[in-house]
User: What shape does this take?
Amino acid sequence: MIALTVGLAACTPNETTPKATAAPALSTEASTAAAGVVNAATLTPKPLVAEAIDLMATIVAQDSVAGRSKTVPLARFLGDQLVAGGFAPEDIVIGEADGEGYLIATYKGTTGAKPILISDHIDVVEAFDKDWERPPFKPVVENGYMFGRGVADVKFDVAVLIVTLKRLKAEGFKPATDIVLAFSGDEETAMVTTGKLAELYKHAGLVLNGDGGGGLMGEDDKPVAFFIQGAEKSYADYRVTFTNPGGHSSEPRVENAIYLLADAIKKIEAYKFPHQVNEITREYLKALAPQTGGAVGDAMRRFADNPNDKAAGDLLASYPDHVGTIGTTCVATMLNGGHALNALPQSANVDVNCRIFPGTSPEEVRAALETAIANPKAQIERLEQTPSSDASPLRDDVMAALRKAVDRRYPGLPIIPEMSAGASDSLYFRAHGIPSYGVGSLFMKVSDDYSHGLNERVDLRSVDGALDQWKTMLTELAGK
Assistant: This one.
């Protein structure tokens, strides 16, 4: 493990520059105590909290950005941690696909029931030292926060999961069904390792994903809600192209590829996909309607009760925060046309990014764009082939286990299903028909969410409850 660098000077989390030089490096347990980052544990023994923080710092220090050859050794390191914690070496698999590593660890059960898969990823997005006030791959603790690239997305849960599985081994827990830890190595990029893991475990009975869902804290440090991710929108890019013979710019023709494209773009802008709802989004809107209040809250309630209420749907669609919740969206993102200032354009194209509502196929969206443009000369092609999936059902056993886990942290806290607009590893498992749920254990304020950005950080007070949450979820779901 590594020693943390701890800034003892007064500095709020939102400040980008510490007010004083960091203190000398200390051992993890001593440093966290000195900085006041570990409150008296109420759910988890203090040594386990300290172990998780120490492990978190160690893996944040590994710059596991795609292409840097760090995911394979990181997967091996985490596998060694599990072996040291009681796993048999033959139950650990370190794999590689397209140069990126992945980890599989099997906690063997006593029956032949379908395994419970725990999904997460060990790769992180790029971060440049010159842009960060603190070095992104040298974890720093200040005023109870750990800063570093990937600490929130998603090495917090990676560390917590490793410590939880070691704890269950030490306590002699014997699951009824196999628990399979499956950490991918390129979730932030090509997801090749994700696809491989999903193919290997397409027979799994359930996926719990640490890279989705999680708790929301208010700015007053009081918990607001826990979100469980039960669906995500599919991603698709389409290129719309017009071609002409071209010619000299001094002899304009009736048809011009750029003008044809401009007309098509305006039609795409004007096209509105039908409003949609599923079990996940209906429950989401019902839960948020009272908190939102006003005309928007009323529209949430009305649309959840009746998705054919066009006025309610149109009102929600007028807000960027809500339009993605109630249907498919497509938007022009990149534009290219012509080849010379003094020549008529031989081609012009626009790239259209679509986030597709679960249950709608990418081909249906391509056909909708074709209908909207209404010009047979438009060539419409999908740029890549990524999987799409339906929403997962809100299973009673999962919701009951999560209810018990959340109540141990914050009794009675609302649990709200949500649909993610971005992709996670769960997409590949849902494409195989495996119910998948984002149940990340980190509680975070909106003002602290800097995933993929500068000053990425986590509140270390969340570690205690996170360890208890995963233990409760796994013993409830795998122990019966």
